[in-house]
């Protein structure tokens, strides 16, 4: 049975990715800050899909929490996929860099950059031992496009992109993907730009199966977008 860790799994894209993986028979270790919502999500997946789900509430910026997540995966048999999805904006709603609070920027780097790196470091022994170990880091268009007010959040995602690219070079036996899901109807998007109409955006449940083509088709390490994956023909990759 394959095992995945999914962070930020209580709602939005994280919950959608967890649901899609569970439907495909994966056992899961789920993380989020809110215990009640996370436990509700985990219980629902166990009932609906019949898989093993461990829910651990906590903050990925905590080394102790990261160690607990990897220990839980070890208890389920190993770690085949690490999904670093948890993230914070740094300010809600978003603000120009001229008034970006230092505390918010610091938190964004701790959660969005140091958290994923720490989980990779903690999980590497299990990922290396897997026949198909992979890391999926959730990126953003803001990592590569200079949108007004998205500077702090975008800086963290740009850091994750470069970190992912270096990891792919340093760990050639793993798959490392950094993927931009695009704008979605999520609580985070509403908090970022509360005046925007999100009605025309896709739901996370529409995006999750597109992103998981990366694993299902064993695509090469690299940066991907949901839009590009949705428009590309199916076809398996070749693991190095």
Automatic annotation (TrEMBL):
Entry's PROSITE patterns? ADH_SHORT
Which SUPFAM superfamilies does its entry note?
Answer: NAD(P)-binding Rossmann-fold domains
- On the tree of life, the source organism's domain of life is Bacteria
State the Gene3D superfamilies in the record.
NAD(P)-binding Rossmann-like Domain
Provide the alphabetized UniProt keywords. Answer: Oxidoreductase
> Record's InterPro entries?
NAD(P)-bd_dom_sf, Sc_DH/Rdtase_CS, SDR_fam
Q: Does the keyword Oxidoreductase apply?
A: yes
Q: Which family does it belong to?
A: Belongs to the short-chain dehydrogenases/reductases (SDR) family.
* Name of the protein in question: Oxidoreductase
Q: Which organism is it from?
A: Streptomyces virginiae
